[in-house]
Design brief:
Helix content: 10-25%
Number of helices: 3
Largest sheet: 4 strands, antiparallel
Strand content: 25-35%
Number of strands: 9
Order of helices and strands: HHEHEEEEEEEE
Distance between the termini: 30 Å
Low-confidence stretches: none
Radius of gyration: 20 Å
């Protein structure tokens, strides 16, 4: 749910606004997530000077995923695989196009990843896919850089799936 329903009362709206604007240690996890989703501030990262060699990652399929994402992001560039040579194309380098980010901040919310070396804290988030909020595990955060274009950040996530066997609440486990 991104917004309250149309028939929400004034009291419900005031309560939600108060929860979102409240900050600091007193705010719980749910309120922190609501604040992050409601926050339109930019994403802050720790900038790394070194590029990441995508061929050396634990998940080799990441290069293909990022290449496809870059193609949809920069339609006019005609990006190709680093093993291909064609006229009128630009190579998406496996070793000089991407910087790995162990974490990033959006507003006051810290988003880590399960592949970070120092800590794997904050590696879960709820992500919107086609107007549906899905719980996910954050695998990687990257900064994509192509010559002549503004750098952009993206995350590789694994969606968490649930079936009828998984209890809805932790206390339902028997």
């Amino acid at each position: 749910m991104v917004t309250l329903p149309e028939d929400a009362s004034l009291q419900e709206r005031k309560l939600l606004t108060w929860l979102i604007q409240d900050n600091g240690v007193s705010r719980g996890t749910l309120c922190t997530l609501l604040s992050g989703f409601n926050n339109d501030t930019s994403i802050q990262v720790l900038h790394h000077s070194k590029f990441t060699d995508l061929r050396k990652l634990a998940h080799p399929e990441v290069y293909g995923i990022l290449l496809e994402y870059a193609r949809t992001l920069w339609l006019d560039l005609n990006l190709i695989n680093y093993m291909t040579i064609e006229q009128g194309t630009m190579i998406f380098s496996a070793s000089h196009s991407v910087k790995h980010l162990p974490f990033l901040y959006k507003g006051d919310v810290h988003y880590g990843s399960c592949t970070a070396k120092r800590t794997q804290a904050d590696q879960y988030a709820v992500v919107e896919f086609n107007n549906l909020w899905v719980p996910c595990r954050l695998t990687y955060h990257f900064e994509l850089q192509i010559a002549g274009r503004a750098a952009t950040m993206c995350s590789v996530v694994k969606c968490m799936l649930m079936d009828d066997e998984l209890p809805i609440f932790p206390w339902s486990i028997q």
